[in-house]
Amino acid sequence: MYDKIRTILAADSNVTDECPSSKFFDEEVAPNTTVPFIRISAIEGEVNNTKNGASGLDEERYAVQCFGKHLTTTNSEIGARSLADLVRTSLDAHTATVGGTVLRIYCDDTGSGWSEKAKDGPIKAYEYEFVIEANR
Description:
elongated; 9 strands; alpha+beta; 3 helices
């Protein structure tokens, strides 16, 4: 499902104008990556199969974490919360067909932020959780 989320975000110029899709990561961030970047992590999932194959509806939960030098945008540098809000706007209440799978995505979180240590000093992070219903 990561690739489907990535496809939706990569197609949204509001997101990619601030953070190129080459800086979208699945779980592990590439070494020496500079901010801003986005990490998409699976939290849990439920694949519903029947004796005859797919039941038609799966539900998965993902955390989308955005990282920046600051929490909000300052001096023309996108902040972690500002980028996360663009991601939320892109994904929340989104319905699309990606690779033959119908997706319904909604934000199931009020968001949370924190600081992390990085090689070049502290960075800020902000996360929203999304539920993705996939009709296979």
